[in-house]
Structure formats: C-alpha cells, structure tokens
Amino acid sequence: MKIVLAGSTGFIGKEILDQCVAHNYIEQIFCLTRKPLDQSYFKGKRGHKVTEIIHDNYEEYPDSLLRRLRDEGVDGCIWALGGTGGRIDQYKSLEEAQRVGINYPIQAAEAFAKQLATALSPQLMPKKKFPFRFVFISGWGAEQNQFRKLWIWNDSRHIKGAAEKGLFDIADHSDEVQGHRCFDVIALRPGQVIRRGDAIGTLLWEATVPSIAVDRLAMCAIKMVLMGTGDEKKKIMENKQCLGDDWAQINTLS
Fold it and tell me: Where are the domains of the chain?
C-alpha cells in the first residue's frame, strides 16, 4: 500500500512514520511536510520507502501534486496534523486553530476524494486497496454539534467535531466506482496520548483515564488505513477501541 502522511514531524506523526517504514505492507510513504525530515529516513535498506514532499499550503493542492500521487498509485492517507489534546494555546488565535484543525484536513480530503480515490477500482483488489481510506486523528470527546456548550475543552472538541462532520460529508458524497463509494473516512478519538514507557506503567495509565500510548495509537491508525473498521457503518473509533483487543483482554482478567 502507498499512503500520504500529514504531520510526520509531530509527536504522533513521527511514530506513525517510524512504524510505516518498518511495516511489511506499507510500500511507500509520501510525507506532506513544511520542514525537511530527518535524513536518517533516507538511509539504510528501507530508505527508499519515504518520499518527502515540501508542502507549504495545506489548503491548496495543485494538479501537479495530485497527478504525481495518482500516478504513483497512492490509496490511503493518515492525517496526524493538528494534535489531539484539549489545549489550543499552541496557536496564535482561535481562527488559526480552526484553519489548521478544520480547513486543512477537509481541503485535503476533498482533493484526494476527487483526484486519487476515483483512480482506484474494486477489480484491482488485492493489488490495490479500495476504497481510498482517509484516517483522521481526531480527539476524545469530539463534538460535531457546534451549538452544544461543553464544560471542558469546548473549542478544541468543537474543532475536531467540525472536522469529522466535514470529512464524513465528503465520504458520503464521494463518487461511486462500480457501485461502491470510492472514499472512506475513519476518525480515531484518542484521549491523552502518552509517550512510550514501561509496560506496567503504561497499562495502568491507560486503564485509569482516557489515554493511549503513542505506539499503540500509531498501530491502530496503520491498521485502519490498511483494513478499515470491518464495518462500513462504523466511522468512529473511540479511545477504548483504539487500544485494541489485546488491551481489552488484559483488563478483563480477574
């Protein structure tokens, strides 16, 4: 599979990139980034797997870029740009946070749905994945109802919810290829994303509050872009579901 990864230099995106490089079923990763990647990604036996694309404006996707990705056979995207936490003070203003959190993923999804997803075909399975899957790293408590007042993290949860709603609308109205929608969106709603730690400490933290270790979140995102949720109607993966079956089994042991 060949995927686009946005946010590859961030905390979550870097973990996703590292795991994609090591993954046997990820053939190529096209990283949309404003700043150059670490040069270590282009060395060694797997150095050919990463393609860096310097992209300054995430609200515009020129035909030349889309044509390149289409010709390469890109069939999925993981959107890890924008963070997952409840704080938006990393941005200069609420308007900037909304532009990054809502406009950026929606503009990308619209371009990919029209130009990349329509180039895929169910008849090419399993040679190519179908439909084109857009995995969006959302956040715990994302609220799609923009009129609902929230007690905690009101702005960030509304931003994630607005992005989800816009992305789902794009998927629902995407073109059909041989009777099937060619574009699918899956939203992951992790709680607090924690760094790798000792196994017991991480497990206790995940069992206590809505949270997930960054490596587990990355594994979930890659699984979703490769295989989907297994249910066409299931579009949202809550924190507990992102943790996976292994975590659930461990925490049900008496």
Answer: 2-250
Residue pLDDT, tens place only, 181-227: 999 999 999 988 888 765 545 555 555 567 899 999 999 999 999 99
In angstroms, rounded to a whole number, what is the distance separating the alpha carbons of residues 155 and 87? 9
Range list of β-strands (E), 82-235: 132-137, 176-177, 180-181, 183-189, 192-194, 211-213
| Assigned token pair, 160 | 């994630």
Tell me which residue has tokens 């990705």: 69
User: Would you tell me how many other CB atoms lie within 10 Å of the CB of residue 220?
Assistant: 22
Q: What does the alpha-carbon distance between residue 166 and residue 171 come to, in Å, rounded to a whole number?
A: 9
CA angle 40–38–35, rounded 5-degree value: 155
- What is 2-250's CATH number? 3.40.50.720
- The answer to whether the CB of 83 falls within 8 A of the CB of 13 is no
Instruction: Using a cut of 0.85, tell me whether the model's pTM lies above it.
Output: yes
User: Percentage of residues in the chain with pLDDT exceeding 70?
Assistant: 86
What DSSP character marks residue 38? Answer: P
Beta bridge partners of 68: none
Phi, psi of 148 (to 5 degrees): -80, 130
> What residues form DSSP beta bridges with 142?
none
Q: What is the mean pLDDT of residues 98-124?
A: 91
Q: Which residues are registered as beta bridge partners of 185?
A: 134
CA separation, residue 217 to residues 23, 25, 104, 173, 214 (Å):
15, 18, 21, 28, 5
Give kind and range of the element (H or E) at residue 157: helix 154-172
